[in-house]
Amino acid sequence: MKFCANLAFMFTETSSILERYALARDAGFKAVETGFPFGHTLQAVKQAKENAGIEQVLINLLTGDVTKGELGVTAVPGKENEFQSNLNYTIEFAKAVNAKKIHIMAGKLETVTAKNWETYENNLKYAANKLNEVNILGVIEPINQHSVPNYFLSNYEKAIEIIKRIGSPNIRLMLDIFHLQQICGDITHNIKKFMPYVGHIQIAQVPNRNEPDTPGEINYEYVLKQVEFYGYDDWIGLEYKPANSTKDGLKWIESFGYKL
């Protein structure tokens, strides 16, 4: 079992994502995942990652102004050129830090029509071709409506249908157990059902999004064994908010029988 630190949620004791690369290394992590590093140049991000001597697993797609709640335009008709520009820009960042996965965020929409689904799928087809050229995996993630109201993709079955129709090895599912529990539950059976389409996994406790061993709805000692049993052997992103300090909160890894 391999765990990578999510730098959007962990080590926020410091304000700069650039500093968090070294903090993750010092805590024992060998790899990280990040949101898009807004406000930092490609060279600065690459330097921070290389100075830390740590692997970058995944980076989020450039989404627009997150302070305004913008989480992508993948499903927005009329913004196809913006989507393509954002994707191409993110690919350059991914190549610079040698990240092999990009999380393609869908966007937030108050009203959803068939045109949105058509646009979303067409944009993902474009992404599949571009990502195939550079050997990078695109992952799409259903996000629950409690955490992000009006997020476009909040249905696992629809996500799988689209992945099947596109039929590309470069578009896969991001299975975040935190969202899975709140969208449809039935975790064990759904891990088994969705695993053939999974490209990345993330975890956090429900409902407070803290460490896996904090009080909540999910028995992660059991769930992680199911993830392993059904064949996942890639990185698992720790996309949780530490209840206290990030480093103190990592004790669960050893208590569950794992190590960084």
From TrEMBL:
Function: Catalyzes the reversible isomerization between hydroxypyruvate and 2-hydroxy-3-oxopropanoate (also termed tartronate semialdehyde).
EC number: 5.3.1.22
UniProtKB keywords: Isomerase
Provenance organism: Chilo suppressalis (Asiatic rice borer moth)
Top-level EC class as recorded in UniProt: isomerase
Sequence ranges assigned to domain Xylose isomerase-like TIM barrel in this UniProt record: 22-255
UniProt name for this protein: Putative hydroxypyruvate isomerase
Family: Belongs to the hyi family.
PANTHER family: HYDROXYPYRUVATE ISOMERASE-RELATED (PTHR43489:SF6), ISOMERASE (PTHR43489)
SUPFAM superfamilies: Xylose isomerase-like
Pfam family, one: AP_endonuc_2
Catalysed conversion reaction: 3-hydroxypyruvate = 2-hydroxy-3-oxopropanoate
